[in-house]
Specification:
With 224 residues, the protein is an alpha/beta fold. It has one domain: Alpha/Beta hydrolase fold, catalytic domain (Rossmann fold, 3-Layer(aba) Sandwich), CATH 3.40.50.1820. It has a six-stranded parallel beta sheet, with helices on both faces. Strand 5, helix 9 and strand 6 form a beta-alpha-beta unit. The mean pLDDT is 96.
């Protein structure tokens, strides 16, 4: 059976993001074998509270992925890591479905300091984007200190147009027009001129994985 890895965003987990939103069942019904992976510092297993230990999230992810993947589906931070692995070893992870990523790929995580302050109880009044990301994180069994350390890690991955030009995998970029984190995505699309692109109305950033249109588009892309 063709294996497809699912990589969540910051604060999430395989169980709370993909499994809870019906992706595991849908992929199996389509003839795929879903491979659930938690990014370092995420999920019930937790991890280090030292930001330095998250200096290479992509290498940690690569060690968890099986060889010979048919494809991988990422959301937000998960998409950044899949693109980093694609830049290092083009085509190694099969077809890539990238959700919740845009021109923010090329910039520091803007909401990071505010989220860290909230995780540490230093503030209780959060702007909508921060509150939404905290609510997303709250759905998974997680250690807030781990998530804060991930946000305070040495900058990685660091991707540029030049590095993305090495990409060889078939790629689908799937976003929401109302995603305040990932929009616009023009620079990313220009960096991956061979990628397919779909933009839908409706969900914002954290609600993207629960939208059936994303799931259906991903399965269709992986099936062709």
């Amino acid at each position: 059976m063709k294996q497809v890895a699912l990589i969540h965003g910051w604060g999430g987990s395989y169980a709370a993001t993909w499994k809870a939103d019906g992706w595991t069942e849908a992929l199996r019904n389509a003839g795929f074998d879903p491979v659930g992976v938690d990014i370092a510092g995420h999920g019930p297993q937790g991890g280090s509270h030292d930001p330095a230990d998250y200096a290479d999230l992509a290498s940690d992810l690569a060690a968890k992925l099986p060889n010979g993947l048919h494809g991988a589906i990422g959301f937000s931070l998960g998409t950044k890591l899949l693109l980093e692995l694609e830049a290092r070893q083009p085509g190694a992870n099969g077809k890539l479905v990238l959700g919740g990523i845009g021109d923010n790929l090329f910039a520091p995580e803007a909401a990071g300091p505010a989220i860290v302050a909230a995780l540490r109880g230093e503030t209780t009044e959060n702007p909508p984007q921060v509150a939404a990301l905290l609510a997303y994180a709250g759905k998974s069994e997680r250690d807030p200190a781990c998530l804060a350390a991930v946000l305070e890690r040495p900058a990685n991955p660091v991707l540029t147009e030049d590095r993305l030009s090495a990409a060889q995998a078939p790629i689908l970029i799937f976003n929401s027009r109302d995603d305040a984190v990932a929009q616009p995505d023009d620079r990313l699309r220009a960096s991956l001129p061979g990628a397919a692109h779909q933009l839908i109305d409706g969900p914002g950033h954290v609600a993207l994985t629960s939208d059936p249109r994303f799931r259906e588009a991903a399965i269709a892309f992986l099936s062709n």
